[in-house]
Structure formats: C-alpha cells, structure tokens
Design goal:
Radius of gyration: 21 Å
Organism: Bartonella doshiae NCTC 12862 = ATCC 700133
Largest sheet: 2 strands, antiparallel
InterPro entries: UCP028704_OpgC
Number of helices: 13
Protein name: OpgC protein
Distance between the termini: 35 Å
Number of strands: 2
Shape: globular
Pfam families: OpgC_C
Keywords: Membrane, Transmembrane, Transmembrane helix
Structural class: mainly alpha
Number of domains: 2
Strand content: under 5%
Order of helices and strands: HHHHHHEEHHHHHHH
Helix content: 55-70%
C-alpha cells in the first residue's frame, strides 16, 4: 500500500478501488452494480446483527426474567409492538443500540456511484455541496427521523457524508499525481491540534465551551452530526501519516500481518465484534 493511500477517511477505499474505472464510460454501470451489491451485503449484515441481538436479549429474559434487558438498546419495542418494530427495523426507522452503524454505510454505498461520477467531473463543486450540506444539517439539526420512537438516527448520513466525500476526493487528488504544497503548515497544525486534544481530554476541559455559552452540534463533542472536534481530529491524524514518511513506515505492516488480514475481512470482523459486544 502506498503512503498516499493512508489519507484514512471513509471513502478512501472507494477511491482506491474504482479510480481507474472513472474515465471509462462503460464502467459506470459496473461501479453501480458493485456498490449496490455491497450495500445489500451490508443490509444483510445489519439485519443479522440486529436479530441476533434480539435473540440474545429475549433468551436472557426468558431464562432469568430480567426485565432490565428489555429496556436496553431499544429492544423493548419488539416486546410491546413487535410488528411495528419489525417493519421499522427493515426500513432503518428503528435501530438497536450498537447496531446502528451499518445503516450509515448502507446509505453511503447506495449513493457512492453517483458521488464517484460527480467527483470525476467536478470535484470542487462536489466538495462545496457536501460541505454546505454538512454545515446546514449540523446547524439546524437536520437528520433522518427514527420511528415509531421519536428521535434521529444515531449516525446522521447527511453529516457523515462530508467525511466520506473528503476521503474520496483526497484519494483521487493524490492518485492523479498531485502533491500537497502546504505540508509544513499541515504538519504543524495537525500536531498542534492533536496535542491540544490530548490535553483537553487529560485535564478534562469539557466545560470550556459551556463557559463561553457555545452550544451547537457542530461545536459540541457530538457524534450524530460529526462535530468539528471529531472531524478535525481525524483530519489531523491522517495528515500526519500522509506527510511524515517515518511515521507511516513505523506503523506500516505487510499484507500477511494479522491486522492487514483482519482489514481485508472487515465486515465479518465487525459483525463478530458486534455480537460479542452484546454479550458484554
């Protein structure tokens, strides 16, 4: 794997996999077919982990009559309104705790082919539209609703799409042979931000924004709307790996390394980890 592929946002693997096909007119239908097939695989995995979790929690309830288990992770709706819960789960309206990550990736995979096409034509416009959508959704708290329980998706695809597109366009930018001309500035900013983040967590400066009377999903440490602190953290960390060859070489592993093998089988690893997490 080349160093320039380490700009590790969601969307990087998409750019690495399909960048060579973007300029071949007959390849667009191939890309759509591959990505929609992947989205369907993710959907199957999502349903499997969801109903495996339900089986585990209902089994514990039947064995020990522990009603607390029916109040955890949105499981209770299947006990009180099973048909409605089943239908809303199929349509992502109802998502169990710790089983609410794959819906985000399914939505991203479904629209990824069109994003790839636009990135080939107008990367700047794509980034501008993506960033605008990210800001508007964060500022006005716009996200797909959950139902029948009122609320929003835990991971808002309208916000997280910006990280996805940022990774995709960055990968295509580097794959086209272009170079980052502000590497020293980027390294200083990234290292400084990561150091600030370390101190912030270490010394528990969480109340600083409260003193300033700042409150917004874009500023708070919010996961649903991908707040700026989270976004800047992954940009800073990825930038250091991108700009510092020694740092990259320090963590680089061969294709036969167990971690690399796990990465090539990320979906089974994710599903297995989710099921084991429910046992915890």
């Amino acid at each position: 794997m080349q160093r320039k592929s380490l700009f590790c946002f969601p969307g990087v693997s998409l750019g690495l996999r399909f960048h060579a096909c973007l300029h071949q007119e007959e390849s667009f239908t191939f890309i759509v077919r591959k990505l929609w097939k992947r989205a369907f695989q993710l959907y199957q995995a999502h349903l499997f982990t969801t109903f495996a979790t339900l089986s585990l929690f209902f089994g514990v309830f039947l064995l020990w009559r522990t009603e607390n288990f029916l109040e955890m992770h949105n499981v209770g709706l299947f006990f009180t309104q099973p048909f409605l819960a089943f239908i809303s789960t199929l349509s992502f309206g109802h998502q169990l705790g710790y089983n609410n990550i794959l819906p985000l990736y399914i939505v991203l995979m479904f629209f990824a082919s069109f994003v790839l096409y636009l990135s080939c034509k107008r990367q700047g416009l794509l980034l501008l539209l993506s960033f605008t959508l990210y800001v508007i959704c964060g500022f006005y708290k716009i996200a797909p609703p959950s139902y029948p329980i009122q609320g929003k998706w835990f991971l808002n695809p309208l916000s997280w799409q910006f990280l996805f597109i940022l990774g995709l366009t960055s990968t295509l930018f580097l794959k086209q042979g272009r170079k980052i001309t502000i590497q020293p500035v980027l390294v200083v900013f990234s290292a400084g931000y990561l150091l600030l983040s370390l101190l912030w967590v270490r010394f528990k400066w969480w109340g600083v924004l409260g003193w300033l009377h700042w409150s917004s999903p874009l500023i708070d440490f919010n996961k649903t709307f991908l707040s700026l602190p989270r976004l800047l953290h992954i940009i800073a960390l990825s930038s250091l790996f991108l700009c510092l060859p020694r740092l990259y070489n320090l963590f680089h592993v061969s294709e036969q390394n167990p971690l690399a093998i796990l990465g090539r089988h990320s979906l089974p690893v994710f599903v297995t980890g989710t099921i084991f997490a429910m046992f915890g």
